[in-house]
């Protein structure tokens, strides 16, 4: 039979292990918040290389039903095909309302986000947009990276007309760049109803 001291030590070790696991989970949550927020800030300013570097080496990107781009360098190519950030350009890209589920031991996570967008070019067009991100993440070389980013556009509308006058149809392709895989879901944005698939059933 173990002694009282041995039982006490065993209980203390178990408690330390539980506390270490909780501390790791808290650190992972913070790191994932920072990772996704950093992506939004880089997109804000057209810093495409910095945004691409947040992806895992085999990470994927799928936005607006344009197909899936596979691998960090293909993500980089996609981003570099977007218009540059320059005089008269607005790309505000806010990352909001996270629901994150983390498996710290496995080094994997999934997160759902809402992004609110203000996009426009001086004297040409200005639009409001909103999308749901259903993303996955993995720890790569000790750092969290985006394993898959899937942006499902809920609406785009002209800033001066508003959504009550309808929405802008999705642009289904990027000029000069074909995806590696077809879109994983087929949908149209507002005024059609859009429900992005959930990675969770309950929280």
Describe the structure.
Keywords: Coiled coil. It holds the Pfam family SnoaL_4. This is Nuclear transport factor 2 family protein. The structure is a single chain. The protein is about 25% helix and about 35% strand. With about 200 residues, the protein is α+β, with helices and mostly antiparallel strands. It has one domain: Nuclear Transport Factor 2, Chain: A (Roll), CATH 3.10.450.50. Strands 2-1-6-5-4-3 form a six-stranded mixed sheet. The mean pLDDT is about 95.
Observed structural traits:
six-stranded mixed β-sheet, elongated, 203 residues, 3 helices, single chain, alpha+beta, 27% helix, Nuclear Transport Factor 2, Chain: A
Query: Can you give the mean pLDDT?
Result: 93
Distance between the termini: 42 Å
SSE order in H/E notation? HHEEHEEEE
Apparent shape:
elongated
For the biggest sheet, the summary is:
6 strands, mixed
CATH class group: Alpha Beta
Task: Name the CATH architecture.
Answer: Roll
Number of β-strand runs: 6
Instruction: Provide the number of structural domains.
Output: 1
What is the fold-level CATH name, i.e. the topology? Nuclear Transport Factor 2, Chain: A
> Helical stretch count?
3
Strand content: 35-45%
Structural class: alpha+beta
Query: Major sheet: order of its strands?
Result: 2-1-6-5-4-3
Give the low-pLDDT segments.
none
* CA radius of gyration: 21 Å
- Specify the helix fraction band: 25-40%
